[in-house]
Design a protein that fits this description.
The protein has helices at residues 26-46, 81-107, 112-124, 128-138, 141-157, 164-187, 190-222, 224-284, and strands at 52-54, 66-68. By secondary structure, the protein is mainly α.
């Protein structure tokens, strides 16, 4: 009978990548606060009694003031949809600022392409520690992914249990795990901007339609030249809803496209960093 030899257990792949703990309370706090702020701006800012020649001092929640003293004040007469439109604009501004701060931090310091070239130079000279120090200087998402890969890279250099192909796969897996933790942070809350880009226009059109329904109802009830003048005034006021909705939508679309472009640039840098590590190891440590 042939003697059977015990096979060595497969080496366990350890990872230095740790999940990031982050709170996203802003995703529900910001819309609520912005809706409240939108109403306060509409009711007590635009709708202040001093802004009208015939204020409704006992109007309560929705005073029916008449005779706005300025062009911007006419927006108040656009109706109850106006505070919602103001809220969508404030929400867009809030998430634009939040994404600007997050993506600026994720971009790190310095040029990503230059950073990758420096890492490639140090790896070519088999100076892994210096390459890791470059990641500490970069401080962005690309640097974080590269650093995780370099730690595994350094570990695989001294590993004698795996062959070259298995080592390369181990490095690639480490990079993929680090990437999976970085990308959600970059794309988080962008859905609010894309939603506002669509909803703001629809809200503006809804406010315009409601205003025109009210104006035509007044025309049918009163008749005469005075009613025609009232109709013209009502349509003018209703169109403020459309203007505010379209303006907010355009604002959100512009920044959404800016952010997605920046994220694509960072993602490309992450992909290039992973390729750099695997190709360098495969060529230097055969």
């Amino acid at each position: 009978m042939a003697e059977t030899k015990p096979t060595a257990p497969a080496a366990k792949s350890s990872t230095s990548v740790q999940p990031k703990k982050s709170s996203n309370a802003i995703s529900w706090i910001a819309p609520v606060v912005c809706i409240l702020a939108g109403y306060l701006i509409w009711r007590f800012g635009l709708g202040a009694a001093g802004n009208f020649t015939k204020p409704d001092l006992e109007g309560g929640f929705w005073p029916h003031h008449e005779g706005p003293k300025g062009g911007l004040i006419k927006m108040y007469e656009g109706g109850i949809i106006v505070p919602l439109l103001i809220a969508t604009f404030l929400t867009a501004v809030t998430f634009i600022i939040e994404r600007l701060l997050t993506i600026s931090k994720a971009s790190g310091s310095g040029n990503i392409a230059e950073f990758i070239r420096k890492v490639q130079y140090h790896l070519a000279n088999k100076n892994v520690d210096q390459a890791i120090s470059e990641c500490d200087k970069q401080k962005g998402s690309v640097g974080n992914v590269m650093k995780a890969g370099l730690r595994k890279y350094k570990e695989m250099i001294s590993n004698t249990e795996l062959d070259t192909e298995q080592k390369v796969l181990s490095i690639q897996k480490e990079v993929e795990e680090a990437t999976a933790l970085e990308l959600p942070m970059l794309e988080k809350n962008l859905v609010f901007l894309s939603t506002i880009a669509s909803v703001a226009t629809l809200l503006g059109l809804l406010g315009t339609v409601l205003g025109m329904i009210s104006s035509f109802s007044a025309l049918g009830a009163e008749g005469g030249g005075g009613a025609a003048a009232e109709l013209s005034r009502g349509i003018s006021e209703a169109l403020y809803n459309t203007a505010l909705g379209i303006g907010t939508s355009a604002f959100a679309i512009i920044f959404y496209n800016i952010f997605t472009t920046k994220i694509d640039h960072i993602t490309y840098g992450i992909d290039e960093s992973g390729f750099t590590l695997t190709q360098s190891f495969a060529s230097l440590y055969k």
